[in-house]
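debug: dumping io for the single-chain case to check the tokenizer round-trip. Nothing else runs in this session.
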Amino acid sequence: MARIFRQQYTQRTPDGGRATRDSAKWYVEYRDAQGIRRRVPGYTDKAATQQLASELERSAAREQSGLVDRFAVHRKRPLSEHLTDWRASLLAKGVTEKHAELTVRRATRVFDECRFSYLPELSASKVQASVRALQEGGLSAQSCVFYMQAAKQFCRWCVWDGRAADHPLSHLPSINVRTDRRHDRRALAAQELQLLLDATRLGPERFGMDPNSRATLYQLAVETGLRASELRSLTWGCVDLQADPPTVTVRAAYSKHRRDDTLPLKASTAQMLARWRDESGTPDAEHPVFGKMPRIDTIAKMFRADLGAARAAWIAKAGTPTERKGREESDYLEYRDFAGRVADFHCLRHSFISNLARGGVHPKIAQQLARHSTITLTMDRYSHTVLGELSDALSALPELTTTGRERESEKATGTYDSVPSPLPICLPLSLPKSLPTRGARREPSGSSLCNDGAILTESACGANADESKTCCASTHCDSSPNGEGGIRTLDTGVHPYDGLANRWFQPLTHLSKYLSILYLWHFHCQVFRHATILTTTSTPATVLRTRSGFRRHRTMVQRAASPRSRTRRFH
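debug: decoded output
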């Protein structure tokens, strides 16, 4: 139940005393829909204040039952007040003041172009037309996307903070930024990086940094992938050169994702930093690694000046006027190449990730070293390929330009449309002499069998041993002292598969052991598959019959795997 009252206050009297007086206005005290006690000023008229109290009670009751629009108060507030509250919310979330100011300024510009004053006036079509006008006025497609994202972010915050019921710009389509790219970066090649570092070490002081400091800065950026702001925040306490491996840590306050990032260092990079620290006089842990590093915009100018000096030095090394003219007409070490891509300080990070990709590093590891949230950003935006790498990849395609005469010659030599051997790689190609030869035909002593089954006598093969070896090698025969045959190998000058199907040379005895093992493995696989099906779909009687069949099958396989059965089967 609401009540009305007049507030009392104490006032000093002319005689120096104190007197209690009532306020001129009446006040209303009531409970809102959430049950919170509220106190609002009324009017000087008691009856009017009583009517206000009744109206506030009815509004709280309707809102509690869901009959009152709880966003009505925010609809009446000016849009500038909401933008001010949004900026305070961004700062409270932990973003930098520069980022919060930039985001609010972009959204404010879009709303001013549309002439919005209150939240109900927000319209997707008007925002789209305003962004289109900004693009026609000279802004790039990527900049227009940033303006549109700022407006959408403000609307999402209004819904999250309970100031609006829905997001009026949620279905606003984005702009295809690929149609208007103005600042695409490229990755520098290894030779370009080396020329840049050499020219920087020999150059003058630029923007307050000496040549060695700039060369160290560029090398550390291209070997760690750190951003310019992260490199500026590094202190010697963030570099651990005694660890295994050496590491560098970016503090969460300066990291883009607001977390501590620890990255490994190459051994050569750690040695370079150790020498750099010794030259600096071994500063304390809080001393910056690059104490005189300029601002972000100045770093871009410094890098561009060093890149131009490296190109000038490369052109000056030309041996002939023709070569010099060719170098001057090329885009080697140029700030902007013929494709429109630029080489600024951030391109060192692109070069770092591209070098990882060229080195065969797994994409997931490259993503972790780059500290990207998605693998798509690492592979699509930061990994660059050159035309030579693409042409080298085409060598993996099959050759389809051979003529009919070349194919006939390949067929004649046996190299065209060759089919690999169906035998497993693990099976031996020759027969050991110690295997049993039961069932093989024995010939009289002093003779041996050839591939075609003919009997060669000692006189046919030669009188001495050397002549016998020569004769057997030339006629593709294989003999042994006891007249037992065997599968011949390349050592004897014949193909290992010659006579494989000839039963006189024990063709499949050496394969019986391996075939039995494969057969047993296949049998157990079938048992497992049928057992799985039977336990879920079959009746008990079917399971018993199947088990008895498995037992009979297993007994048959065991008998087939015995030595006597193998000899009887394969001979």
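debug: round-trip ok. The two ends are 109 Å apart (CA to CA).
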